[in-house]
Design goal:
The structure is a single chain. The chain has 740 residues and is mainly β. It folds into two domains: 73 residues, Carboxypeptidase-like, regulatory domain (Immunoglobulin-like, Sandwich), CATH 2.60.40.1120; 548 residues, Maltoporin, Chain A. It is 6% helix and 57% strand. The chain is built from five helices and 45 strands. It has a 22-stranded antiparallel beta barrel. A four-stranded antiparallel sheet has the order 3-2-5-6, with no helix packed on it. A hairpin with a 6-residue loop joins strand 5 and strand 6. The N terminus is likely disordered. This is Outer membrane receptor protein involved in Fe transport.
Length: 740
């Protein structure tokens, strides 16, 4: 019997060494934290894999004695001969980013790798800087710092988010049927120092992205752990102060992380009427790994903000010398908002071929805003101030299952999932008010219920250097509205289902060159009040788009990404929250060129730039009258960054936006601008000292601009012209940080 056992053991050992199999392992850093997207390559069999968010990888066709190469940009590459296939735990040592070590074909997502490089080289400390990390995304603030930014991307004036889908840790940021405007996206609840990853894509080519994914999507991922605790304090001009604290709660607890972060900001801004702006952010996160490397994440956050605003001012009053650029016609604008989030995420390897990722979330959101865009055009006695308000609860969940198999010699990765989002918005209000205290008239008042259920499937077929990825997405919507201004109670309801196919191709021409062709249909929903008013017609307008592009490393330390793209939008009806009316916008088409580069001049000096050239026009209107108001024609962003030069870091950054049509016939032009920012930091042991200058050359620039018809109290006739919010002048602030 003993001889049989020994013989069985010998046979099993021989089988393990002679026959290839799937081998499972984990890639971590020196703090035993999992590393995502690490490239694992079997130099013997030439099979490969990437590590998941849990750090886990499964590599096929591998046996004892094979040589594995494990690498990730920003970490030292390891080459290991397999002496065992049990409990594999590979530790990578962190080091400085070196672009010459980047191999395009080894990257799981080159876009995410580039954003990780940008975050590492030029860290962010404001929500504006977080958004500007997305190449080609321009932002503008026009309501005292508390209102969500106005967004521009690929020839779109996206307003506050109608055509770009934004999420944080799987929670949606876009607000459907918002009191101020469809897709309203307020990212101010995110503390910038907690952002770990920015995943983004342009166009509507991604099965996991649904509503608002026409121009693109942006997904932010917060840090799972802190390397060290930190407190920082900043002071600047215009009574500006910011303090941030990040505190590690479980430093030496195995397989568990927890930290809390807080942020407080106040400023009066450069305006003659102080903004009296303040914001408080609280954030907490707990992460636990099971012995099987399952990952459970709990996050909670609370954000509150209030502000006063000088509003948009007419150019004629500046030209007449009646007010300065930082003056006001009506300085009673302003508002307050808050958001509380709870989010639970679970990631699990079901088996060596199948993984699950799921999250469930709840958000409570409240919003109040006072604005006056037309002054005394509608009401020559009391003025045209409006009040927008809502109180909202959001419930939702997302799941995705990824399964990898082989069809003959063809590797197939199949990802499918379902999702749910349910919004309950009570007392959604638009009213005419006087001096933020007296309600003159209710224009809109009612309760909104909106439900979105989605399902998707995405397949990736790998044929050596060639990959084909067809996908299909299904979205079901139910819109319900109770109009409180009607004497008889009635629930108006509509339902709509839409199918969105996608088809993408990727070709790894060389290790340093990837070509791709992306295509797909996207959509964005319209406001529930529009849906029920129009009997359910034209409520989910489609987008049709395609990208032909490349990611190329012509030289070891230079990465160039480029794309030719086209996007067509169907007829859509847009709810104008400031007026409570419906405006048809007609069919539109956009095409253009995106070009970006990252160049590492030395070990510590980096150059980056991103440019977008766009032609955006209305389809149904005649030439010369078919401009799309405020659609950017050309944007350019870039800078030089220093990363750890004898303790110094910092950079010089610029952003350029050209002149663009402010109305349909280009008779009113929104002026372009170029603004340059500068910062420098010096790290001395655990203390970092720094200062930053916004608008280094103190140029006069208009942050947001609109062609608006308005009338002042002393005017007999209205005037249509540019109304704008002035951009920040020369602004100096200093910061001291302490790590422990």
């Amino acid at each position: 019997m003993k001889q049989i056992s020994i013989l069985t053991l010998i046979i099993n050992c021989f089988a393990l060494t002679a026959y290839s199999q799937n081998v499972k392992g984990r890639v971590v850093n020196e703090l035993n934290q999992p590393l995502e997207a690490a490239y694992v390559y079997n130099q013997t069999s030439e099979s490969h894999a990437h590590s998941s968010e849990n750090g886990v990888f499964v590599i096929a066709n591998t046996k004892l004695g094979d040589s594995l190469k494990i690498g990730l940009l920003g970490y030292k590459t390891r080459i290991i001969a397999l002496e065992s296939i049990e409990n594999l735990n590979f530790i990578l040592e962190e080091k400085a980013f070196q672009l010459d070590e980047m191999v395009i074909t080894e990257e799981l997502n080159t876009v995410s790798t580039i954003s990780r490089l940008d975050l590492n080289v030029t860290p962010v400390n404001s929500t504006q800087e977080v958004l500007r990390k997305v190449p080609g995304l321009f932002i503008g603030q026009h309501a005292g710092g508390g209102k969500a930014e106005q967004l521009f991307l690929r020839g779109f004036d996206i307003d506050h988010g109608t055509d770009v889908s934004i999420s944080v840790d799987g929670m949606p940021v876009n607000m459907v049927s918002h009191a101020h405007g469809q897709g309203y996206s307020d990212l101010h609840f995110v503390i910038p120092e907690t952002v770990n990853k920015i995943d983004f894509g342009k166009g509507g080519y991604y099965a996991q992205e649904g509503d608002f994914n026409t121009a693109g999507y942006v997904n932010f991922k917060t840090k799972d752990y802190l390397k060290e605790s930190e407190v920082s304090f900043s002071v600047g001009q215009f009574n500006t102060m910011r303090t941030v604290g990040l505190f590690n709660l479980l430093e030496d607890t195995k397989n568990q992380n927890a930290y809390v972060a807080l942020e407080y900001i106040n400023t009066d801004g450069p305006f003659e009427s102080p903004q009296n702006f303040n914001r408080l952010n609280l954030f907490g996160k707990y992460v636990m790994f099971s012995p099987e490397n399952d990952k459970l994440t709990l996050t909670a956050s609370h954000f509150t903000s209030r502000w006063d605003a000088s509003g948009q001012i007419p150019q004629r009053e500046i030209d007449n010398g009646n007010i300065s650029r930082f003056g006001a016609i009506d300085d009673t604008e302003g508002g307050q908002t808050e958001r509380t989030n709870l989010n639970v995420t679970f990631d699990k390897y079901i088996d060596d071929h199948t993984s699950l990722s799921a999250n469930a979330f709840y958000s409570h959101y409240a919003f109040e805003l006072y604005s006056n865009f037309t002054f005394f055009l509608e009401d020559p006695i009391n003025g045209d101030q409006i009040y927008q308000k809502e109180d909202r609860n959001i419930f939702g969940a997302n799941t995705a299952i990824t399964h990898t198999t082989f069809l003959g010699d063809t590797e197939l990765t199949l990802t499918s999932g379902i999702g749910l989002r349910h919004d309950i918005s009570d007392d959604v209000e638009l009213s005419r008010t006087l001096n933020r205290s007296t309600t003159l008239e209710n224009i809109q008042l009612g309760d909104i219920n909106q439900t979105n259920i989605d399902a998707f499937v995405n397949a990736e077929f790998e044929f050596g250097k060639f990959k084909v990825a067809p996908a299909l997405r299904l979205d079901y919507f139910k819109f319900m509205y109770n109009d409180a201004l009607q004497s008889n109670y009635q629930t108006l309801a509509e339902t709509k289902t839409i199918v969105s196919p996608k088809l993408n191709f990727y070709y790894n021409a060389q290790d340093n060159l990837q070509l791709y062709l992306k295509s797909g249909l996207g959509f964005h929903s319209n406001d529930t009040r529009v849906v029920v008013a129009n009997g359910g017609e034209d409520i989910l307008p489609r987008s049709y788009g395609a990208d032909l592009g490349s990611v190329w490393k012509p030289f070891p330390k230079l990465v160039v990404n480029s794309a030719l793209w086209y996007l067509f939008l169907e007829q859509e009806f847009v709810y104008v929250g400031d007026a409570g009316i419906v405006e048809p916008s007609g069919k539109t088409r956009r095409f253009g060129l995106d070009l970006g580069l990252r160049y590492q001049l030395t070990d510590w000096l980096f150059l980056d730039t991103d440019a977008t050239l766009t032609n955006a026009r209305s389809v149904d209107d005649p030439d010369g009258e078919n401009y799309i108001p405020l659609a950017p024609d050309f944007t350019l962003i870039g800078g030089l960054s220093v990363d750890d030069l004898n303790g110094f870091s910092g950079g010089l950054r610029f952003r350029y936006l050209d002149d663009r049509a402010a109305n349909e016939d280009n008779s009113i032009v929104a002026e372009g601008y170029m603004v340059t920012d500068f910062n420098v930091n010096y790290k001395l042991n655990n203390i970092t000292l720094g200062f930053a200058i916004e608008n280094l050359f103190d140029v006069d620039w208009n942050e947001t601009q609109f062609a608006t018809e308005s009338r002042l109290q002393n005017e007999a006739q209205s005037v249509e012209e540019i109304h704008f919010t002035p951009g920040t002048p020369f602004f100096l602030k200093g910061t001291v940080s302490y790590r422990f």
